[in-house]
Amino acid sequence: MLKALVHITLKPGVLDPQGKAIENALTHFGFQGVGDVRQGKYIELDLQDGDRATAESAVQEMCERLLANTVIENYRVEIVEKT
Amino acid sequence: MKAAVIVFPGSNCDRDLKVALAQSMGRDPIMVWHGDTTLPDVDLIAVPGGFSYGDYLRSGAMAAHSPIMKEVIRFAQRGGAVLGICNGFQVLTEAGLLPGVLMRNKNLRFVCRDVFLRVDHNDTVFSGAYETGQVIRVPVAHHDGNYFIDSKGHEQLEDERRIAFRYCDETGAINERANPNGSLSNIAGVLDPTRRILGMMPHPERLSDPALGGNDGRAMFDSLISALG
After folding, report:
1. pLDDT tens-digit readout, B30-42
2. What is the pTM of this model?
3. Options 3.30.9.10, 3.20.20.70, 3.30.1280.10, 3.50.4.10; CATH of A2-81
4. Cβ(B110)–Cβ(B143) below 8 Å
């Protein structure tokens, strides 16, 4: 059985005030040398399909149509064996 | 004019929208559940504010894929008028009926207060009862109202006069102080190329009755009656 690991991140240049708030908090808590922070989403899906290529293509389409808003987000799909 | 209001799980401004529409129409709009697959025969579809699907994943993202939305898209393609308010605006952008995206407010806060809007164009079915340049007072209540579009899209909106409302101060001046959420160019509402689909973050239906403290929203619903019969 396969599993899809999906990373959804803001496109470069898109304002990320939540990332900025995290950056400020880290600095405030005493962590040195923290630069730009960007926050994204991580989604895991268990897949019934056994074929790796079909799975990847299906999840890419899920990203295009629902999981990511491609106006402001990029996505990266990784298919792994479910352990 | 016959109208329908779409109700998603988590919509909470549908009743206010029904009341505002009924006041101008003289009868109630039809309330349509998101899971329905057919629309009644209407001239206007209104998509209300609220927290459809709890804003999970992204505001409006899952609602945009509701069964009824296929029909709303077909309705729009046939020239039907569509009004999306707040979460409704988010649903319309996620459904591809309007360009751009609504992001988390720049100051990260849920903003809940009256704002001033400049009516940039009164040549639409939504704004005929306003004057171009008129300043109106309408409330906002949102966490994800920061409108963004790429520079090419922005240029197109400006060239085609499709920015319907902008956040302004009480004198009508467009500035940062008047912008509650960081929206690009103080954009509060946008139109599609046919000017028959409007999405806006503020809530005209919440100030459409002097008893509620303001009446500037009423003209939008009156405009629709005038334009659509």
Report:
1. 999 999 999 999 9
2. 0.96
3. 3.30.1280.10
4. yes
